[in-house]
Amino acid sequence: MSIYYDSNAAKVKRPDSKHRPGSLSTIFTDEQLDLLASVMHIKKYSAGTHLFWEGDEATAVYWILKGRVKIRKSTSDGKDLLLSILQPDDMIADIDSWDTTHRYTAETIDQVEVGVIPRLQLEMLMCKYGDFAYRYAMWMGLIQRKTESKLRDLLMGGKNGALASTLIRLCNSFGEHEGNGIRINIKLTNNELAELVGTTREGVNRLLATMKKDGIVCSEVTGFIKVINLPALKDMAGCPLCPTCPKEICRL
Q1: Would residue 243 count as lying in a domain?
Q2: What is the pLDDT of residues 162-201, one digit of tens each?
Q3: How many CA atoms lie within 13 A of 187 on its CB side?
Q4: What total number of domains does the chain contain?
Q5: Which tens digit of pLDDT belongs to each residue from 141-173?
Q6: Phi, psi of 127 (to 5 degrees)
Q7: Degrees, nearest 5: CA angle 170-212-83
Q8: For a Cys staple, 164 with which of 5, 172, 194, 236, CB 3.0–4.6 Å?
Q9: Roughly how many angstroms between the first and final C-alpha of the chain, as a whole number?
Q10: Residue 161: in which H helix or E strand, if any?
Q11: Model's pTM, two decimal places?
């Protein structure tokens, strides 16, 4: 395990992603991650606070070192959509050359620690190191493919297929095999599930009730959802087979 240094030369250990598919440690080399760490400074946030709001000036990217972050988007009628939930060794890079403001809001779920990398420093790294720029382009392509696959499932699968797809992605992102199923190790309210699917809380309540009746999922007393019949969810979502939708893509 390599050691990172912030701008004050304080040692920071690499986030433990266990080489989770799609995490930065599976895209960039150790040397390239050290380059990122050399230009970042560490910032800590308490639970329920915001890294930035939609419409704020986008001046940096954020490498999540500890904790989880919700990515939200507000609609014109005041509703919120939950776009993603990020974990340690994920990166938030909401920057481009055409729009210098954030297009969504980043809200912490628990205690969060991030490495803040100024936009100018990132651009200088890409100009100086072609191999780093290539890997960054690979990572951006991965994010785009993941977004496209989410939109495909939400738009073409109907509400039932959209919820099934979301539960599958939650299993791939936060799931832990336990007994006769997969326990999703993150507590989400039905309202948050509705924001992920793009429907109402009442609609999610009905869909989950049907899935529980059919023995596809169950709710544990601790508040976690457990998927018992993953193949049934895949049938509902119309899942394409790998490598069309590899494990790096089928994630939240």
Answers
A1: no
A2: 999 999 999 999 999 988 899 999 999 999 999 999 889 9
A3: 6
A4: 2
A5: 999 999 999 988 888 888 999 999 999 999 999
A6: -70, -35
A7: 25
A8: 236
A9: 26
A10: helix 158-174
A11: 0.89
